[in-house]
Amino acid sequence: MSSTSSAVAVVGAGPGLGRAVARRFGAAGHPVALISRNAGKLRGIADSLAAEGVTARAYPADVTDEESLTVALDTAAAELGRIGVLSYNPAPTFPSEAGQVPDLAALGFTSAARTTRESVRPMFDMLVGGALTAAAAVLPAMREARDGALLFTTGTTAIRPLPEMGNSGIALAGLRSWAQGLHNDLADEGVYVGHLCIGVPIIPNSGEGDPDVLADRWYRLAQERTSFEATVGI
Q1: Residues 150, 182: contact at Cβ < 8 Å?
Q2: Over 90: is that where the pLDDT of 93 sits?
Q3: How confident is the model at residue 101 (pLDDT cuts 50, 70, 90)?
Q4: 222 conformational bin, left if phi > 0, alpha if psi -120 to 50, beta if neither
Q5: What is the number of alpha carbons within 13 Å of residue 183 lying toward its C-beta?
Q6: Helix (H, G, I), strand (E, B), or coil: what is residue 198?
Q7: What value does the mean pLDDT take over residues 46-64?
Q8: Torsion of CA 213, 128, 68, 55, to 10 degrees
Q9: Residue 88's closest CA among 186, 189, 171, 203?
Q10: Which residues does residue 11 pair with via DSSP β-bridges, in sequence order?
């Protein structure tokens, strides 16, 4: 990133990693666009960041709705300036306290043997479709400026299959493959594409899984631009 004036769009901005990424890049001087479905939660995150001196605005949108997400990103760019960093990390909400075991079925995951076209579709729409839409909205300006970063966060199944999460594995492995191809395609255009695969619970004060630690990892990857991928706990 050559300029601290470009905006950062955090797509999938929840109270954990999304807020931490917004806070880290915002502290470095980037205005932040917060994007997710829940307008009330977004406003709360934006207010808490503003109290810390970060310029942050909420743009409610559903990542599975191409028009909604595109309008949110276009509006953010018009109000905050060119989107110079896209952080894409929507995901099912896992428990945020140590010791809690998630109900994977309730979160929409299906085992490999039970995975169907129907169970893959919502995962694909959220994890891949939304990423494609978001990238399409911000890439033209990045390529014109010859400066930008697309940051895609995934989980273990992007790299290592987990039988109990078969449907997400199809989506995340595909997202990783596409992102790496995009990294290669854009290498000579000043646009960095990176992938961070997180294989530990994202819980405050948990060492490498602490949201602030992960956000700083993302910030350093985007600054250094020396590798496509990093993993945590894998």
Answers
A1: yes
A2: no
A3: low
A4: alpha
A5: 17
A6: strand
A7: 97
A8: 20
A9: 171
A10: 35, 88
